[in-house]
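FORM 12-B: Structure-to-Sequence Request
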């Protein structure tokens, strides 16, 4: 058995568009995900987040579920279009929802960890170019200002941006997430502006608001491996790592973009003047912690026909329903590398979890041994890393509930709590009971 010390935080995580519903209530307007979901062929079976887990109406009941789990902390995100439904128009009613949620959490001794952006960009912002436009910095600053004015002091920590790689590259380069564009130049601009909005927000909190509430960013990181020792496969691995990891890690922790990737991207983008003097200093402004969402390793091989000369290779690892390799050892290698090459900041695993096709039994049980084992292995990996002094200070299971899994709609269940989307009933899965025990005993 491995122990977690008293200071280690256990939590669980969700995001606004994936669980809230209430899409047209409280003055909220459309986000890019409402638009994308309504576009035929973009999301599995035309699913959308219009109702989702109906958390907007059931948050009190949901807080009781979190309490039952016994976790100290709950990570959720705020829907920007609830707060600014139109450009420059602040909506008090939208803010009131988050105040009520935070109050309910605090009344139940659960610490709120708030993500300010988890992909639901207001449609009005996208209509003017979205994250590809430098105007996004002004819009985000106005939003962040209001959020800090109303909520700083009530929350335990702030996460500025969740997974910029997904928001920028899945959304603007690969087109599989909202807004569904396939344009490398837009993607690079979006990535840059998202990172810049992060730095700008950290400065706003620390300098303008003079606040000492901890603040950081969350990246999704994938340790890549080459299918063989061949020179070409090593190139593939390096490029996959550059595209997914280094393009974000380097500016945040080194204040520069990786030159090999600038060379590679130059094939698609000739003008990098969107990176303006001073931007990289802002992006690399010191934070208080570093959030990592970890799910899987990646195995790649050389492919001359593919962007950046790399493509997924066959892997014989055991997989989750997302076809993602279960890879806790590679997770450990990733953390060791981050410690060697990038940062000493406390690391928080802000997401980790697995999708499996769960079945609700007649007596309302969900037996999910694979998910339980996945969570157990990663918790063990963390405990071992901490024995090596890697300073991982918290772990948040993704996700509290089955929810809207983006382009996969409701087809993929990540929750440790099952949601019957016909009745909106919630049922704790075996993995939730397992996690509850780990949290109570502080050992795995
Ligand atoms: O559901 C997502 C979440 O929104 C961001 N990180 C990965 C999860 C699983 O795909």
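FORM 12-B RESPONSE
SEQUENCE OUT:
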């Amino acid at each position: 058995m491995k122990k977690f010390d008293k200071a280690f935080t256990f939590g669980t995580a969700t995001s606004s568009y994936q669980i809230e519903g209430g899409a047209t209530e409280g003055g909220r307007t459309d986000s890019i995900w409402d638009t994308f979901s309504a576009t035929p062929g973009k999301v599995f079976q035309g699913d959308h987040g219009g109702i989702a887990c109906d958390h907007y109406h059931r948050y009190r009941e949901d807080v009781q579920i979190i309490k039952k789990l016994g976790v100290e902390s709950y990570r959720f995100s705020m829907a920007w279009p609830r707060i600014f439904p139109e450009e420059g128009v602040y909506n008090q009613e939208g803010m009131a929802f988050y105040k009520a949620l935070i109050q309910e959490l605090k009344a139940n001794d659960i610490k709120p960890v708030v993500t300010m952006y988890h992909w639901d960009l207001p449609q009005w912002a996208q209509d003017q170019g979205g994250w590809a436009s430098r105007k996004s910095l002004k819009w985000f600053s106005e939003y962040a200002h209001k959020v800090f004015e109303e909520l700083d002091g009530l929350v335990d920590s702030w996460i500025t941006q969740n997974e910029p790689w997904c928001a920028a590259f899945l959304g603007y380069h690969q087109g599989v997430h909202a807004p569904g564009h396939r344009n490398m130049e837009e993607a690079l601009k979006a990535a840059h502006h998202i990172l810049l909005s992060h730095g700008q927000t950290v400065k706003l909190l620390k300098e303008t608001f003079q606040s000492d509430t901890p603040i950081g960013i969350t990246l999704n990181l994938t340790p890549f491996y080459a299918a063989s020792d061949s020179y070409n496969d090593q190139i593939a691995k390096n490029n996959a790592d550059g595209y997914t990891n280094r393009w974000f890690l380097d500016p945040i922790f080194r204040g520069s973009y990786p030159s090999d990737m600038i060379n590679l991207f130059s094939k698609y983008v000739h003008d990098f003047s969107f990176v303006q003097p001073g931007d990289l200093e802002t992006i690399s402004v010191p934070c208080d912690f570093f959030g990592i969402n970890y799910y899987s390793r990646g195995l790649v091989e050389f492919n001359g026909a593919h962007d950046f000369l790399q493509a997924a290779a066959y892997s014989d690892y055991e997989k989750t329903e997302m076809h993602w390799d279960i890879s806790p050892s590679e997770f450990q290698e990733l953390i060791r590398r981050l410690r060697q090459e990038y940062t000493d900041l406390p690391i928080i695993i802000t997401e980790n979890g697995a999708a499996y096709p769960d079945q609700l039994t007649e007596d309302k049980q969900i037996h999910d041994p694979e998910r339980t084992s996945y969570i157990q292995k990663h918790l063990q990996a963390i405990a071992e890393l901490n024995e090596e002094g890697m300073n991982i200070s918290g772990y948040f299971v993704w996700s509290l509930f089955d929810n809207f899994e983006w382009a996969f709609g409701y087809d993929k269940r990540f929750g440790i709590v099952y949601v019957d989307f016909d009745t909106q009933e919630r049922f704790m899965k075996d993995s939730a009971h397992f996690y509850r025990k780990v949290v109570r005993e502080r050992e795995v």
